[in-house]
Amino acid sequence: QQPRQQRGATMPKAKGKGRRQKYSYNLNRKRLYRSARRRAAPRIACSHIRHAWDPTKSVARNLADMGLAEDPNKALPIPKKLQLGMEVDSHGWQPEKKIVQKPYVVNEMEYEASLPEKKSNTLSRDLIDYVRYMIQNHGENYKEMARDEKNYYQDTPKQIKRKINVYKNFYPEEYKDFIASLKQEKMDVQ
Fold first, then answer.
1. What is the pLDDT of residues 119-148, one digit of tens each?
2. Average pLDDT, rounded, for the chain
3. Does the pLDDT at position 5 exceed 80?
4. Distances (CA, A) of 45 to 62, 100, 101
5. What is the pLDDT of residues 66-83, one digit of tens each?
6. Whole-number pLDDT of residue 162
7. Domain limits, the chain
8. Under 8 Å between Cβ of 135 and 164
9. How far is the C-alpha of 165 from the C-alpha of 152, rounded, in Å?
10. Which residue of 52, 59, 157, 164 has the fewest C-beta atoms within 10 A of its own C-beta?
């Protein structure tokens, strides 16, 4: 007699694996595809790093080539003596010099960081017109301003004062010129 396994040498299947996979209508395929793509290759926000990035290299290798630190704790370690609260000699620790293959990345980032920050927030044209109208008609009388018919938002005297101070801080030269022109108009009237 021959053993049974030699005739039809097939391994038994795991339970439940023989059925074909049914299509799941409950899954959002578009979202799954997008999230898988994001996980596979995350978007690098810094354009300088993104353009110099080599997808064939590892994260550590890419950052080392650019002269950037992968782990700040390894790049600038805290000496043991300093951790214990003791003073460190002038020759405490020496960072090892690494060869930077893409120094232009760091140079571009340093240049961009050295540029002055742009003042992006400005006041709306409506607020500027509102403040100028109030100052022109009422001077520094905030209670009168609060009772004015053009006070659409029903601001209190303190709120109006705050808005005028914001205008003064944003446009100091424009405010001085505006007050000077008002004084000139008063002089011309008299």
1. 667 889 999 999 999 999 999 999 999 999
2. 83
3. no
4. 15, 22, 21
5. 989 888 888 888 777 665
6. 96
7. 29-76+98-114, 125-189
8. yes
9. 19
10. 59
Long-range pairs for 49-54: beta carbons < 8 A, 24 or more residues apart: 49/105, 49/109, 52/102, 52/104, 52/105
Tokens at 57, concatenated: 């290299």
- The separation between the first and the last C-alpha atoms of the chain, rounded to the nearest angstrom, is 131
Would you say 62 and 100 are in contact if contact means Cβ atoms under 8 Å apart?
A: no
Largest CA distance in the chain: 131
Q: At 57, which amino acid appears?
A: K
Query: Which of 91, 42, 37, 100 shows the shortest CA–CA distance to 68?
Result: 100
pTM: 0.44
Whether 116 and 159 have beta carbons less than 8 Å apart is answered as no
Separation between Cα atoms, residue 127 and residue 129, nearest integer Å: 5
